[in-house]
Design goal:
With 449 residues, the chain is an alpha/beta fold. The chain folds into 2 domains: 20-190 and 379-445, Rossmann fold (3-Layer(aba) Sandwich), CATH 3.40.50.1820; 193-371, no CATH class. It contains 18 helices and 11 strands. The protein has a 9-stranded mixed sheet, sandwiched between helices. A two-stranded antiparallel sheet has the order 8-9. It is globular, with a radius of gyration of 22 Å.
Length: 449
């Protein structure tokens, strides 16, 4: 029988849940590690990390170099692949791959509305979550690397927020890296969250315009749904209060390769006729709640703006404040006229902690994180300027989630970093592009292309 400790993690040393098993073409091994919550206090509290080791079936007995994958987010566990799709097949041609569930995510010690009260009140929860940014993730990687590689450096593949972590890695522990490959994740080294969102809203507006150009019938559909939400109280089956602002946030889909099509398919079956008149259909509500709920990734909402915190200025709900500078996103004003409703994108707002039942208990914690003023630096410009680690980055032109100008400025600041700027892919190019994206970036990092 497995016992569970106060953090919600298995308390059995070595973890009896570990296993090695097979999927088509691959052998997988569960890996479990114990790391300090605060790496500056190694004798203090510890948390558990989980990672899945993946190796091609025919290479199980070979001595291969390691590639560690840092998932986007923050707040998402590593992809649960079946077999070797997307970039994974290319990586497995020459690497053992470690799919790391970053702290607080996936099968690592969880951080959510069920577990965080074990820490105490909102202040204790906020102090705990202050240890869940890129700098701590890098130190986790360095803590487990000797156990995985025997001390040899490894290659890191960072997607989106994982790329932010990779740049932090280059800043603080480049000796642990054989190479760094980044996809859609070159952060600004010094921008405040306000700068990030002032750059983001115009990009989002362009993405929405492109969606309506592709699907002009969605202009009226979106306006009709928004008007319904302004005049009706709608609670989704999981308890989520669907406001017009929440509906607009479905625009986060537009940053992915299939997102415009997914949004179109969602809008086309929104209404159904009932004895009481037109109502939002059960099918529409079910799909919307799956897209909006933070049940599987609450950490994203809690620390998303904190990933931009590096000085004494609080983030202070930056996306919400900056949105007020772009009145074209105001739904009531839009519906009073005849312009298309604008969706929003990758941003977290205080109203989400009122609408989403899995976030409501964490509202006070989120407020304290938004007010925090003691965020340490995440990047070291001087060390990046002297970088010697082979590095390459894919910059997706007009990426909805990461500003191209910010990314290119950072690329110029990292010595030796080679960039591939392309508009062939959206933010999820490393997935949608199959093996091509990773193949190109590895060739760039090796000076083979």
């Amino acid at each position: 029988m497995v016992k569970w400790d106060a953090t919600g993690s298995p308390s059995v040393p070595g973890d009896q849940l570990s296993a090695t098993y097979r999927q088509p073409g691959v052998v997988l091994t569960d890996r479990h590690f114990t790391v300090p919550l605060d790496h500056d206090d190694p004798a203090g509290e510890s948390i558990e990390l989980y990672a899945r080791e993946v190796v091609a079936s025919e290479k199980v007995r070979q001595d291969l170099p390691w590639l560690v994958y840092l998932q986007g987010g923050p707040g998402f566990g590593a992809n649960r692949f079946v077999g070797k799709p997307a970039w994974l097949g290319r990586a497995l041609k020459e690497y053992r791959v470690l799919l790391l569930d970053q702290r607080g995510t996936g099968h690592s010690t969880p951080a959510n509305r069920q577990t965080l009260p074990l820490r105490g009140g909102a202040a204790e929860q906020a102090d705990y979550l202050a240890h869940f940014r890129a700098d701590a993730i890098v130190r986790d990687c360095e803590a487990i690397r000797p156990q995985v590689t025997g001390g040899a450096p490894w290659t890191v593949l960072g997607q989106s927020f994982g790329g932010f972590c990779a740049v932090s890695y280059l800043s603080s522990a480049p000796e642990g890296l054989a190479a760094a490959v980044i996809t859609g994740g070159l952060p600004s080294l010094d921008a405040h969250a306000d700068d990030v969102y002032r750059a983001a809203y115009p990009r989002i507006e362009r993405k929405v315009a492109a969606h309506y150009a592709r699907y002009p019938q969605d202009v009226e559909r979106a306006r009709r749904i928004a008007d319904h939400l302004l005049t009706h109280e709608v609670t989704l089956p999981n308890g989520y209060r669907l406001t017009v602002e929440a509906f607009q946030s479905l625009g986060i889909m537009l940053g992915g390769s299939e997102g415009s099509h997914r949004l179109h398919h969602l809008l086309e079956h929104a209404f159904v006729r009932t004895p009481l008149g037109m109502a939002l259909s059960d099918a529409f509500q079910e799909e919307v709640q799956g897209s909006l709920s933070y049940a599987s990734h609450p950490l994203y909402a809690l620390v998303h703006e904190a990933i931009y915190g590096q000085d004494e200025r609080p983030t202070a709900w930056s996306a919400e404040r900056v949105r007020a500078e772009f009145p074209q996103f105001d739904a009531p004003k839009t519906l009073a006229g005849d312009t298309p409703l604008l969706f929003t994108g990758e941003s977290v707002h205080p109203w989400m902690f009122d609408c989403d039942p899995v976030l409501r208990p964490l509202r006070d914690t989120a407020e304290l994180l938004a007010a925090r003023t003691d965020w340490p630096p995440l990047y070291d410009p001087a060390r990046l300027a002297a970088n010697e680690v082979p590095a390459a980055a894919a910059v997706y032109h007009d990426d909805m989630y990461v500003d191209t100008a910010h990314a290119l400025e950072t690329a110029r600041a990292i010595r030796g970093l080679r960039t591939w700027v392309t508009n062939e892919f959206e933010h999820d190019g490393v997935r949608a592009g199959g093996p091509r994206v990773l193949d190109r970036l590895l060739a760039l990092a090796r000076d083979e292309a």
